[in-house]
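Ligand: iron/sulfur cluster. Inputs:
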Amino acid sequence: MSERPTYIKFGEYTEHIPANIPAAVQQATGRFLDLYQTRVSEMPQWEELRQAASDIRLHTLENLDFYLEKMEQNVRAVGGQVHWTADAAQARATVLEIAKEHNVKTAVKVKSMATEEIGLNHALEAAGIQTYETDLGEFIIQLMGTGPSHIIVPAVHLKKEEVADLFTQKLGVKAPPDPVKLTAIARATLREKFLSAEMGISGGNFLVAETGTLVIVTNEGNGRMCTTMPDLHVAVVGVDKVVPDWETLTVLLKLLARSATGQKLSTYTAFISGPRRAAGENGPKEFHLVLLDNGRSKILEDPVARETLKCIRCGGCLNVCPVYKNVGGFAYGWFISGPIGAIFSPQILGTEAARELPFASSLCGACADVCPVKVPIPKILLHLRRRVVEGDQFAPPSAPVVVRTGAKLGAFVLGIPWLYRFGTRLLPIFTAPFRKDGWMPSLPAPANLWTKVRPFPAFRANFRQWWAKRTKRG
Amino acid sequence: MTQKVQLFITCLGEQFYPTVLEGMVTLLERLGVECQFPNAQTCCGQPFYNSGFQSEAGKLAKTWLQTFGQSEAPIVSPSGSCVNMVRHHYLELFPAGTPEHAQAVAIAQRTYEFTEYLVHVLNVTDVGAYFPHKVTYHASCHVLRGLGLRTEAKQLLGAVRGLEMIPLNGEETCCGFGGVFSVVYPEISRAMLRDKVQNILATGAEMVVASDAGCLMNIGGGLRKAGSSIRAVHTIEILAATESNGGLKRGAQ
Ligand code: SF4
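Predicted complex:
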């Protein structure tokens, strides 16, 4: 799933949603959402914080070159190395090259969206490098051979019984369906990997330009292990993750955990500024920062869609989205799901490959209400819907011609008042054969797309007549 | 000076909920407001805008602006969704600096969702309605998040004599309508509707109230399909009910 998909069949997937996925997802996201609401109620300044965060993110994006160069300078100043990569292939090649230079045989990884985006694990495995995910959720889905189904809780769709079965099968141990014991099993398996790995791979939640610092937020402590035990640490981070300084970072950190899991702060927040400088210090001998563009600078050119990149990947919009909660993350066909996936993927993969995703929303707006950095998701969905059906300066239209013709015809009729009124009078007559008690229980295609779910109300327009009569009466 | 308003009845309102429209007129007149009805009105363009057809939406918006621009009177509508279209999306349809944009800006400021008009323009929260029934309230997405009207309808309903309001679990969660969404992804719409219907059934209310025709079609249909006798009614239908007019007029829905 983390390979770059050529066409995402959202609709086809949702026709047969595995029944147990929504239940597991609803439970977990519901818990996060309750906690989030408690956190917000504790913070009277929440709205101001959101606005500040949104301003910070937008300012940084509008001056991205400046802050990235500053970041690069400061990483080099503390002894790290920086690699600029234009796309997924170049980023993979860069990591592989570093691994080859150091003769790496085993790599341990901290949960990272950027490495999912570039499909790094497969590339490493193909090059003969054993790669182990060390975040419990990522460890589970790696064993399953799938991608993540949630931005921050990748195995959210699985029940503990399913995880126990998986461990029993794949690890050859007797695993009981008990989260504490399952965690212990995973830890024991991973411990030896931490000790033997020559390379630690991470993503990054933020890059602090002021000091060249990589910030990694986790709840399991595995992040520190991966980035301090091996002698080599490679971080793959999207160019959008940079923040100007520590003051602005503080604002974002206040919002991140609260919006993600409803925690005040995640258990571990690691600040990594380059490799170890003196004997006796912690940390790797070498630190490499791989900056990933992969279509982001193209998004920046679009003044409406640009705000997509404000996202700090908290997962809050997934937790609140009734669509996501009913279909689960796999429906979105790539590593990133939910409302943010619905706007991110079509921009990175193109509207041809992901043209169904902008329509995967009822436009209820719940995502925009919770987003800590105010990404206007519904607005961007509409912007991308337009790109799909009409095309814009970034892509030609990709919707089927029949749909486009149908819409034009509909708009034509609606645009002529007498024709509209005429149609309004005809509709109750033409649909009379389908009526039953004021409803139409079933209608022919394509209206059956509605009636297969619930009946359609009977056409019964008579307001204009009513109005005309009483006006005449005076 | 008597207040005057222009009625913006919306396509769905016209096709499926004439009694809501009549109730709107009755109620406004009861409150001393004079109603005008621009007969040339058709569709505001929302279905097109929401499915990506911005040039079609733009044409309909232009016609709409002409139709309602004839009078200076405020515009009142029983649909949060359509008001949201006029107030927010019209501005995006026309580039700043064009005459249409200027017109859209001016008209956006005098276009109101019905409960908003009552509470914020007329400053009325008790319309003198009588409705002795147990009801529960679904917050329509575009009224709630689109227009930011969280309390208005509930305030008005709270003042209705005889009415008992039962809280709805997941009150602010979308019912799964979403316009074009409901037919593009019917199975997701079904799942969302199922959740909504289950929550409504659990309240034991006689009716569920909402402020948008789309929600009413969807939720009303869902309840009917589930074999429930609970009806989905518009806020206006309850506010228009008094001891003397005998309450709800609507038949099968
Ligand atoms: S779009 Fe907003 S809510 Fe969604 S993951 Fe990004 S920051 Fe969080």
